[in-house]
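Reopening this one. Same input as before:
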Amino acid sequence: MRLFLVCLAALSVVACHAPSSRGAEGGSRAGGALRIATWNLEWLVAPEDFLALARSCVPEGASPGRRRRTIPCDVAAKLERSTADFDALARYARELDADVVALQEVDGPAAARRVFPGYRFCFSTAPAVQNLGFAVRDGLPFRCGRELADLSLGGRLRSGVELVLHPGTAAELRLLSVHLKSGCGRRTLDSPRDACGVLARQVPVLERWIDAQAAAGRPFAVLGDFNRELLRDAGPARNGSGGLRSLWSEIDDADPPEADLANAAEGERFVNCHPGQNFNGYIDHIVLSRGLAARRVPGSFRRVTFEPREALRRNLTDHCPVAVDLATHAGRDD
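Same output, byte for byte:
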């Protein structure tokens, strides 16, 4: 089934406050900078929709049959979010204070609006519950771009979603939100693990999008849950037989020149979302084209973490956002 992008306006605005940024790197935003971020919100579904889905959840090992909008029964049992849970997530979103947020694992605008009031949205409208897209601060010029359906490998996985900021001006900027195959966080893509082979099939699709933007001379960024520790993804792109082995080396080839990429987290200290986690590397990334990397505000990378006691009491998410600031384009047409 073909998927379409929708742009929806947020319905309400709430007052903001600026709590301290526990564990976050970077300081306050430089004047006029654009803050872009990415956040996987782990099965974020509006409460009224969650209850309906929970009543017909799919047990472990069972098939959903022809149903496309389903949630697993373990998700139904553990991830029902209260008003207080949504309020806490919205508070962290205000702390993030991003102009644009690439979103993953969000059912759609009804759920996203509870975390990002005062934003507008571009979302894929897949019948599945785990969609992805963007939240865009109200007032920032944008249009919803095309969907990168080939990234779903025939509907098996998730498509990419494109966003165009300042369309038709000298400041036009392309962003792509992605959520790649899990299960191959560190292994080389030519390892025998099935997940690595699936991820390897997504890489050429991603590289084609990157190269198309680079060839057109456009600044761009890819943001999202790569499910891979790109900062440790070193070595040659291909093995001796020509098989793909490194995602990062394959896409960061400077061919065309704008495809000389930078990871916003490079050189930054890794911080878990809360003390109960024991991960040791980023899998949520902001990948910048050469032109955008030159506009990165030094020291602006930040990771908004959760207050430890709140992380234990609330249904938040197993990911927390990362962000970086970009200096205003000199040729910007406001």
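So the earlier flakiness isn't reproducible anymore. For the record, The domain at 26-45+81-326 is CATH 3.60.10.10 (Deoxyribonuclease I; Chain A).
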